[in-house]
């Protein structure tokens, strides 16, 4: 009997009890559950990171691919005018003369050129009456002769600017002024010729030793300054149009 009991006791020592097996299974299940939780948490963290990076990347791409807008400063009509007049040699007179027209705000260099041309045309129209007024006051035949030449030269100059202004008119059914290469070339020629006519008038008065030459020179200088502004804008019109994000026809 003792032998039998010994073997029974030996068997109990070397085989885990059912409670121990159950505990081991529970521990194993808990570890497996913890591993699954860790894996799930890591997966969620990675997924959230990918989503956040995708959103950031989308915002960056949207910002980088937005159509180029004109510079912020060009959105303001006053700054737009300053930019256009910046290509001239007489910035202040360009800005002040165009601003004096009190035209509705625009951010279009072609429109500003047209306004500059209107300023030049208005000033020259006022100037063209000056030689006639001086003739009526003069007692010097030589001065009168030179002034009569000035009358013809100023009339021709005025005609050149009127030709340019005609090209800027909007035709039937057109919504905006269209400037072609040929129109720009013609206006460059006409404005330059108008400026030359005025200088020729002054040269004639100088040759005659006229006493009114200084009075005429002051007025011609102002008129020529406005035309110089118009010509400078016209000469740089293509670059200005591109800077404003617009296109020439």
TrEMBL record:
This is pectinesterase. Its EC number is 3.1.1.11. PANTHER family: PECTINESTERASE 1-LIKE, PECTINESTERASE INHIBITOR-LIKE. Residues 76-233 form the Pectinesterase inhibitor domain. The lineage of its organism: Eukaryota, Viridiplantae, Streptophyta, Embryophyta, Tracheophyta. It comes from the Eukaryota. The chain crosses the membrane at residues 38-60. The keyword Isomerase does not apply. GO terms for molecular function: pectinesterase activity. Pfam families: PMEI. Keywords: Disulfide bond, Glycoprotein, Membrane, Signal, Transmembrane, Transmembrane helix. In the C-terminal section; belongs to the pectinesterase family.
